[in-house]
Amino acid sequence: MKIILTADVSGLGESGDIVEVKDGYARNYLLPRNVAIVATKGAQKQVETIRRVQENRRVRNLEHAHELKQQLQNLDAVTLTAKVSPQGKLFGSITSGDVVAAVRKAGGPNIDKRSVSLRGHIKSLGKHIVDVQLHPDVTANVNVQVTGDK
């Protein structure tokens, strides 16, 4: 079945792409979630409009991503407090949600936790570098200080 994507779908394509997928995948997953429409002659004309809007949005998003990167790099101290055993080991590990909350608490911008990339598991006290993917072309590095809860 030929469909037109109305939103980005990982592993399939971007908004505005015309792709061929199995009927069941389109009927049971893509169409009910409103991330695709059936490709008809009229819908294919709408693809051009979708692509133009997407190009304009991409430019704005790139500029906005650079602004967010600057805000993240200007943060002085992003500190996370975690529970620590008497031996000085963390109970569990630091998650991307914890990092997002710490960035907000430090006065940083609101970012999506799915854009936070931890370089491995954070299971120790100290300073750690966390990557934040703001745009496909823009990545910011945030220094996170993990301290123990005493």
UniProtKB/TrEMBL annotation:
Family matches, as SUPFAM superfamilies: L9 N-domain-like, Ribosomal protein L9 C-domain
Entry protein name: Large ribosomal subunit protein bL9
Record InterPro entries? Ribosomal_bL9, Ribosomal_bL9/RNase_H1_N, Ribosomal_bL9_bac/chp, Ribosomal_bL9_C, Ribosomal_bL9_C_sf, Ribosomal_bL9_N, Ribosomal_bL9_N_sf
User: Which Gene Ontology terms cover its molecular function?
Assistant: rRNA binding; structural constituent of ribosome
Q: Which organism is it from?
A: Saccharopolyspora dendranthemae
Which PROSITE patterns did the record assign? Answer: RIBOSOMAL_L9
Which family is this protein grouped under? Belongs to the bacterial ribosomal protein bL9 family.
**UniProt gene name:** rplI
Domain Ribosomal protein L9, by residue range, is 13-40
Task: Tell me which Gene Ontology terms the entry assigns under biological process.
Answer: translation
Q: Is the Ribonucleoprotein keyword given for this protein?
A: yes
Pfam families from the xrefs? Answer: Ribosomal_L9_C, Ribosomal_L9_N
Describe the function of this protein. Binds to the 23S rRNA.
Q: Which UniProt keywords are present, listed alphabetically?
A: Ribonucleoprotein, Ribosomal protein, RNA-binding, rRNA-binding
